[in-house]
Amino acid sequence: MSNFTIAGKTFESRLIVGTGKYPSHAVMKDCHEVSGAQMVTVAVRRLDLKAKGEDSLLHWIPKSMTLLPNTAGCYTADDAVRTCRLAEELGLSKWVKLEVLGDEKTLYPDVEETLKAARVLVKEGFTVLPYTSDDVITARKLADIGCAAVMPLAAPIGSGLGIRNPHNIRLILDAVKVPVIVDAGVGTASDAAIAMELGIDGILMNTAIAAAKEPVRMARAMKLAVEAGREAFLAGRIPMKAYATASSPIAGLVGH
Questions:
Q1: Euclidean distance between CA atoms 193 and 1, whole angstroms
Q2: Catalytic site residue 97?
Q3: Does the predicted model carry a pTM greater than 0.90?
Q4: Mean pLDDT across the stretch 37-62?
Q5: What is the C-alpha separation between 7 and 12, in angstroms, rounded?
Q6: Which neighbouring-strand residues pair with 127?
């Protein structure tokens, strides 16, 4: 599978994973390993900074993985910016997943506050990957601000509904020059494959793996689905037709 690059850094895996909702840190570690992912999100506001050794979430994340601190739980631009600054002070990373939510029920992004926070963070030298709606205008504004990628949702966070609006994802792909990473809403491997077949650069998921009946097996399935979806996109699907087309040519057959 071809590599992809964000802000000058190249990754072999197009799958990005999370750290929440796992049955245990040990299961999380196993999932990360079999997924092949090289980037992992960590909710800064949920980190237990007093935890040491195996009690610490960070202890279970391989040093080789790129940390992507996220601002989960923030509902204003000011809170999100403050959380990113804290992540930097803690030595986590200056790469951040910007997430500014609009309400607790849908967990949809507040795009106005997201844009506001993105402007500040980009000026401060952060590599910003913002979670956003599947609105093409917002995605273009985030790219124009200087975000390193845009991360439109496929469906509400944790819903497992899959790609609800593939047309909008295609519009975003046409509108921006930065990587497009689908974030939120994937439920199973077929959802991941469908997303990748659209031509997106990567996909971020957490609940679909962590809350599966067998998380490690699902992590492996997601790895394969992302790879298959990308290969299918590069291969180019056949056009859809209303009627059958014979697999074997009939020209030259007796009677034709």
A1: 13
A2: yes
A3: yes
A4: 90
A5: 14
A6: 95
What single-letter amino acid sits at 223?
K
Residue 81's Cβ-count burial label (10 Å; 0-12, 13-18, 19+) is buried
Residues 123-142: pLDDT tens digits? 999 999 999 999 999 999 99
pLDDT of residue 246: 74
CA angle, 175 as apex, 196 and 148 as ends, to 5°?
A: 75
State the catalytic residue, choosing from 9, 50, 97, 177. 97
What's the mean pLDDT in 199-204?
97
Comparing CA positions, the residue from 214, 96, 105 lying closest to residue 158 is 105
**What is the average pLDDT across 72-84?**
97
Residue-wise pLDDT for 171-186, tens only, equals 999 999 999 999 989 9
User: From residue 125, how far is each of 10, 67, 85, 147, 207 by CA, in Å?
Assistant: 19, 16, 11, 10, 30
